[in-house]
Amino acid sequence: MKKKIMLGLSSCLILAACGGGGGSGGGNTSDAVDSVSDVNVARSSNGGSATSVHNSGTAVNLIDGNSLTAWVSNSDDPIVITFGVVENIRKLKLTRLPSPATLGTDPDILIELSSNGVDYTASNVSVITGGIACTSQTANAEVMECNMAERPTRYVRITSQNGRAYDFLEFEAIARK
Q: For 38-176, which CATH superfamily applies?
């Protein structure tokens, strides 16, 4: 009898340790401790900050998570989005009010990344070639989006150029955390 009780007790302990069996709370859960997910590290609620000489009071609107607010750019006055630490960015997305923008060697909207705030490299979502390669991208009158290999980044600089100005609604920088 003692062997049967011990065997039964051992089975219950093993099931409980593995997340299975015995009772209404058993089964697998999706709340794994080491789970990994994509996080918008640019969002102000996640520690991102945005600064610009032009319209400095509304710069945070670009990263507030609210598509009803905007930051209005001025030609050649960049906005810089800063993360609390260097992040491995794998996706960029800039949403704006519908407006055409020229891309290529002299783009109307230039998106650049830096790990140190001094040396910037352009994303191919704006310059098309010669910059940080996009594995897939979207560029239309409202969205500029680039999926890319992870790149260590702490600063993103967005500059309207060629005498153009835009109403930028949201910027996202996605890192896997």
A: Galactose-binding domain-like (2.60.120.260)
